[in-house]
Amino acid sequence: MSARVSESIVLRTYPFREGDLVVSFFTRDQGKLRGVARRARRPKSSFGAGLERLSHAAVSYYQRENRELVNLNSAELIDSPFSLAASFETSVALDYLAEISEQILPAGEANERHFRLLLSVVGSLRSGGAVWSASTYFVLWAVRLAGILPPLAVSAESAAIAGEMLRLGPAELPERAWTRETAADLRRFLVRHIEEHVERKLLTAPILESL
Questions:
Q1: Shared domain check, 139 and 161
Q2: pLDDT tens readout for residues 85-141
């Protein structure tokens, strides 16, 4: 069978035999695949940095019939996240993105949107984007694209409560310089306002008033 070349993102690698690696990689056209990279752990490996975690590479491979693992021939590096490894926080975030993708993506199913999502989030981190924001954005869209995110609907009652909270006027909430020292005052005010709102909305209130 002739070799196939797919634009791919490397998710994980595992030691396999002496000098070999099992590679889990996410292709743009074939989805997530797993394969064996022969002699990839040796010092003079032809794969180079192409099999590093979240490397963007053109992976050449071929698959025999009735074989779960493909055979990797080469991985020509397109873009590397190596520069991000200098920061421990960013390095952990890369592990997080790779692990989520490894667990959530089914084998052999193309997912163009998730592929572009991974590339864009790694690109954001490389350009100095906030790690927490990028990670949260990725997880939100990953579960949404996978179809496992429940509907994010707001009930009419919740919307009414939010609307009332937003309509607080200067008389109720005077303008002042809110600092770390005065934050407790603001918190107590908001808690009291919420409690008063809930008490007014209690379904048992008419029953209690009739007693």
A1: no
A2: 888 999 999 999 999 999 999 999 999 999 999 999 999 999 988 898 899 999 989
In sign, the C-alpha dihedral spanning 14, 107, 51, 45 is positive
Per DSSP, 211 falls in state -
Domain count, the chain: 2
Domain that holds residue 57: 4-145
Pick from 115, 145, 175: which residue ends a domain? 145
Domain final residue, candidates 89, 112, 145: 145
> 100 with 139: CB under 8 angstroms?
yes
Going by C-alpha positions, the residue among 67, 81, 8, 69 that lies closest to residue 37 is 69
Is 151 domain-assigned? Answer: no
Q: Residues 145-149: contacts with CB within 8 Å, 24+ apart?
A: 145/111, 145/113, 145/114, 145/117, 146/104, 146/105, 146/114
Q: Do residues 55 and 139 both lie within one domain?
A: yes
pTM for this prediction: 0.70
Contacts of residue 110, Cβ cutoff 8 Å, sequence gap at least 6: 27, 28, 29, 30, 31
Quote the DSSP letter at residue 193.
H
Tens-digit pLDDT profile for residues 137-157: 999 899 989 888 777 666 676
